[in-house]
Write a structure and sequence with these properties.
4 copies of one chain form a homotetramer. By secondary structure, the first copy, chain A, is of the alpha+beta class. Helix content of chain A is 34%, strand content 11%. Chain A has helices at 12-23, 27-30, 39-57, 76-95, 104-109, 119-124, 134-154, 157-190, 255-263, 275-284, 321-330, 338-349; strands at 213-216, 219-223, 239-243, 246-249, 292-295, 298-303, 306-309, 384-390, 416-419, 436-438, 447-448, 452-454. Chains C and D meet through strand 3, helix 10, helix 11 and strand 8 of C and strand 3, helix 10, helix 11 and strand 8 of D. Chains A, B, C, D: Residues 1-25 are annotated as: Disordered. Chains A, B, C, D: Residues 46-179 form the DinB-like domain.
């Protein structure tokens, strides 16, 4: 276990993972994941996860992998090394015979715990570290991979059972960093006037589509992870909560709808905004989503596939909670609570298929909604959906006893919950109970929104804003 | 000619009130208050409220009334003028025949709505305005009082019914500023090395007392204002919510218990703190509650009655949400949700008597708990109790239509809910459904904490920390 | 018990004075002043100086005297107390029999030396101190005045000789604060939308006037104080310096000329500005001198006499060094060096008459130049003239040995020299060798400019800018 | 010529060069350089200068060349591209037939003028630009080199004469960036915990040596460039100035002497420091020179050759002006003025030999003084020596007429002059009249100090501090 202070400035998703590390080392006790692993399946999954990381980094030059374009992002080579450090520290250091670290100082450089004295400064300095270079990191990965395979091969069954939980946690950890790697390099490339392109052409978009509504009855429902398969601790415990009848938009809000909001003075009307949000609008000059730029009257959007005119049929992405909330207010609606979202997802959609966003494995942007289905569309794998819920512990969540629970819940302050996963989320990584979280002002994650309405008796049937009406159920 | 704009990043409680103004002008529609007013009772109440403000300001010199010792506080004379401006603007300007403002520029100076060019800057500049002086503000108050009495005397019954709601809102608004005036001058006097005293000697304190626990059954309960008497809009609508069985501490945490926390490294152990809280502890050097100072090994506390050694039997006050949360974590407990607090208060304690804190009308600090009662002690009028709930809209709350709802919900972001009222709250001002709110780092309000436990099946009976055990019910 | 430290990032002029205190306690040694004082003349001068301070504060309410409208200014009552503290500390505490301080904590509150923990913060907090009030400060002054008169009356001749130097230093110190008191209250009143007026109507202005030039031969000249009468240490030693022939404008630049600069894009053309200056222009939005505001197309100027349309015949005031330098560049000229200014003043103008600005004892703004005189006009008592010289020690200046020299030269970094005195400078306070200094960006002091030209052979006769031509000598 | 605003945040040395560009395009007019160039000598010198840049970058990986470790430093690949852009813009674009830029956007990226809208932000973002990569920059250099050689080969004699001045300016510009490249990469490598080494072992140091003094008579002397060979405009015009007799230390202050200063409380005693310097000491925690670190009681110094124990016989380097001034005060001495330094260098040392620091072409640190010579040692090529002179225009310096002089003198504000050159300065680049300049708080340049004394009659012969005595001349 690691001593010293915790990287307080770390990005939420990163922290959430590492925090989980400390609490989920005893799967037998917590029952938080149930997959039965053999040496073969474990090694095979290990290879698969690890290969995907390198595949994502492959298009990037050593220089690309070095840059940190703002404190919230990390260099690509840091991600590649950090997830490797995780296996070296939590698996090899604990279980390898005659363990010796690959390089002493890597512990310091790639440990998101390390930032003892000045944590925020240190995180913001990841882009100041030129060495080890991208190639050196590749060597480090190769070394750890070989040792991991050796270890898995030589474990007896009892040890394997004990260790599989930690290794599986490492898989989910690395997947989170795969998503972050893409979000981060998207920002790195965005600040370059040469407008570099990460990957080939994007998919053709679907046709614009009318927003429908899906009614949900509510009542005394249960949310939280139900114990089948892996989860992070913040999805627990499953618990009861009461919901008045409500409705959810059957798809995400589109760029076209966002342009309507802008055309109607969305960024000029203080009355639509939360006070803190309005402070950002005026203080930082927000006029459009984060990656939009207007050239000669046309709005363009920076994507990993290049810079293109904004496509009105695609979901709007890279908007903050403040912007999502202002949009909902403008539309006469609101954002869903996380309980409403999860209950609807469980009831009406079920879990995402393991290959939910395999379809866009090479398409790094949200897709058009497709034709109406009579149910909820775009729940998984397009963009993280802001909810109206603050990120707080579930009833009954409390720190585990002893040092293992030292940091539980530490980030449950000042952030908002997002649900669903985005186009950069690895296939199979998300689920209905998954709780992501970011500060209300964050714009660089791939975020979007879905509207909600109702939630108190008598409200559900009142259409408020003619611009967004219709509905499947009626 | 005006140099710079005035005001407007008003403190939460202030905003909450003024926001209410715009939505509660039609009591007949909303039914949010039910008192039947006659010209006599209205005038009498008006005089009573207005006199209390002047009584609170009386011990303060013109210089005292001018100072703004940090951006969060406002000068005394600004409070006295602002509440007067409220009646002039929302009552006289609307209903007085041949209305003319007392002084044109007072609208600008004493209007907390004015958020034009640089609102935050302006608010922080209230202490830069030497004129009108304290005496001039007295003249302004006298003028408006005379006109208000004339107006009330001459209204016919229909107009009175229509206007009474706005005037009553002015009463509650002025009461909020009475509390703020005291909180603010407490800070102003605290920064003065001469250690000025606002008022005479404090009460003798009671003896230290053992913390007991009160069990609450929970279930599908209702919270929110029930429609009898006045409320602010954020207390509405009354709605159902589900609570697992839980228990509440039967009194507030004391200074003595806080000293135990400090002695056990409370401010040195990162593992007890929310991440943002730990950032404040290290960044701002927090070592004790806000108004405590250690001299020669003894802790002293600044109060409106002077600076005294910390009394271990009194409730701890002036701690932030972060500190309250860290304490609860240290104690193996948690803070209550606002629903738990309100449901318990309604069920077990009822509304505070109209004279709830009359007893300490001249005692401007929280009192000792007194002997155990078998129920909840210190619910109203000692210190605002931090809850674990973010300040968010109740289900079914949404902005009123039209301009009247412009600011609804605007501050429902980034703040935490507090309940109960404090020793500086005017008699009769608080109630079980009253929702106060401050940022999690605020320390200058008179805040404290009560512990909670349980909240999920099986947890209630497990005593966690021997330091805080026992309990009335067992 | 004290909350936080007080003071100490005192304003330059303040520091310069107090620094002088420590080096000039032995006039016999340094010969820096030569006035022969008797008990009668000393007491009479003491009364005169002290009465003028109270006279300047008389128009100001207790609230006016309390406000600190930005960190650079100090409250009026602080000035009144600080100069009193000077006599109590450096005279009474050293020479009074049975000395006891008037109030222990006043030493802390009114001592600009105290730089312990957080000096800059403390200075910026002078406006947070409501007590002692203005009346209490009056009591303090009365007490010290009585004791000072007693002391002067009872000294024998030897002691008087020894003490007179310190007391005379206190006179000059108090005069500096008289000037600061006015500069500071000018700013305090400027931020008030009620536009308070400090004093009655200003003088009628003279007619606009053509700028002439005065040629000076230069050569190996001497500058620095010549030993007759009082000086501060930074005016020493008198020393040789070499000047090429040069010329000086015979009067200050006027508001009218400044309007021409503005009309010609003065604040829009980066090429006219020093780099740091352009950073301020763009970063802080400078568009005109500090106290100017444009209303409906007309420029108005805040003065101690009220807010009036800008008078083109008066000297421009409240411009920074950056603005003065940009103006000179625009005009094809430059600012004079301090050696050029002093040499010309000595040679062509002599010392100011003791009553140099008595004429405007009740006129707190710079006056029009008056008709050409064939020499230098407006040298003393209109506005402090920016020079092109950095504030550095004269050759041969070095710290005195021992603690007495602790602060010598401490501020000789990062500031520019100004010469001449301004309309707020007390009569008799300034002289040809007087070196004032402020950071290049300071705008709240009463500053202006005079042009120079030449300074290298062949340059003097070349008229550069037709807008400013003519000249007495040609 | 380039429009738009100037990069205000650019480092002094960089700006000084580019500013020179605009004024020195007419060498025939200004006579500022006199070398006679032929096509052969010009091409040969071009190749030599250009090759050295690539040689300096050769040890650095693509990742090393990408990092910007603080706003003051620029990435290596930016330097390599920027000096290339200079030749493309000021030579090829003006004189090449059928000119077309190598890459349109390179103008934006490698133009230190480019930072139109937000200059400071842009400069600080050089490290955010991953592409073009280090290899791409090599291609750019090759392309421009080929075109430059073609151009030089095809010029007739008249065109060559006209163009040689600009090309020679490009040589000096590239040399300045060679020095900056090394200063910058020194910082980049210093922040890496892996402690990368730039180059092989350092020289063995000489033995410690006693400080001697060299007396200089002074009088009415001349300083400034005398017109033979190249100079920058800020070295002009040569002019008279008066100096009292003075003396200079015959060598630089050593690390050993600096350790004495530290041991005597140098960083703890406010009385030794300029006020602004003391603010940095306390605000930024300065305890030793910039690149020193204490490990287990021993001081280590980061160099381009690795991290070594501090060698007491070497000159102290990487100290700010504030530190140099505090040291001199502690030693009872002072820093020299720039006029004193230049006059002594001209009189007693002459110009540096063209190969002055060839000896340390592969040694990137200051060398020990070597044995006493009876004259001034270490004048050129060890470390830039802080003077007590503010960076201001020489008498008679004024902006050239027309656009060409737009930016003259722009940085003559808020900086101090340094003289002599340092171990990173290319051979042949410095001279006695060379004026370098940095803000008083800069520590990352390779700076040091030499003491001065005297300067006013009677002072020269008074030894002040026994710790530094002796002297060659006595």
């Amino acid at each position: 276990m690691v001593r010293g202070s915790w990287d307080a400035a770390a990005r939420p998703a990163e922290q959430e993972v590492t925090r989980s590390v400390t609490t989920q080392l005893s799967p037998a006790t917590t029952g938080r994941w149930t997959d039965h692993w053999t040496a073969d399946t474990l090694a095979s999954r290990y290879d698969e996860i690890r290969a995907r990381t390198e595949q994502l980094a492959a298009p990037l030059s050593p220089e690309d992998q070095t840059v940190q374009s703002m404190p919230d992002v990390s260099p690509t080579k840091w991600h590649r090394a950090h997830v490797t450090w995780f296996f070296e520290t939590f698996v090899l250091a604990e279980h390898e015979q005659r363990f010796a670290p690959y390089q002493d100082k890597y512990w310091f450089l790639f440990n998101s715990y390390y930032e003892a004295v000045g944590p925020r400064y240190a995180r913001a300095e990841r882009g100041h570290i030129s060495r080890p270079g991208a190639h050196d990191v590749g060597d480090y990965r190769g070394n750890v991979d070989a040792r991991m395979r050796d270890l898995i091969d030589t474990l007896d069954e009892g040890s394997l059972d004990k260790l599989a939980g930690t290794i599986e946690l490492g898989f989910h950890h690395e997947q989170q960093h795969q998503e972050l790697l893409l979000m981060d390099i998207k920002h790195v490339l965005s600040v370059n006037p040469l407008q570099p392109v990460y990957a080939g052409s994007p998919d053709p978009a679907g046709a614009p589509d009318r927003l429908g509504w899906v009614d949900v009855e509510g009542g005394l429902v249960e949310i939280g992870h139900d114990g089948a398969g892996f989860s992070f601790d913040n999805e627990l415990p499953r618990h009861r909560t009461f919901l008045e009848p409500y409705r959810l938009g059957d798809r995400l809000i589109t760029n076209g709808e966002w342009l309507d909001f802008m055309a109607d003075g969305g960024y000029d009307r203080a009355e639509l905004w939360l006070s803190d949000g309005w402070g950002r609008v005026t203080g930082e000059g927000w006029r459009a989503p984060f990656y939009w730029q207007q050239v000669d009257g046309t709005w363009f959007e920076h994507t990993l596939h290049g810079t293109f005119p904004v496509d009105p049929s695609l979901p709007v992405t890279h908007v903050s909670h403040y912007e999502a909330d202002a949009y909902a207010t403008w539309a006469g609606k609101r954002l869903p609570t996380e309980a409403e979202w999860e209950h609807a997802a469980q009831t009406l959609a079920g879990e995402p298929a393991p290959d939910a966003n395999l379809a866009n494995a090479d398409t790094f942007h949200a897709r058009a909604a497709g034709p109406p289905t009579g149910g909820l569309r775009q729940l998984f794998g397009d963009c993280w959906e802001w909810t109206s819920s603050a990120y707080l512990p579930y009833p009954g969540f409390h720190p585990a006893e002893g040092a293992i629970g030292e940091y539980n819940g530490k980030f449950m302050s000042g952030q908002m919950v997002l649900r669903g996963g985005c186009a950069l989320t690895p296939p199979g990584h998300t689920r209905a109970s998954y709780r992501n979280f970011f500060p209300a002002g964050a714009r660089w994650p791939m975020t979007g929104l879905r509207l909600a309405d109702g939630g108190a008796s008598g409200d559900v049937n009142g259409g408020v804003n003619g611009a967004i009406t219709g509905g499947i159920e009626r």
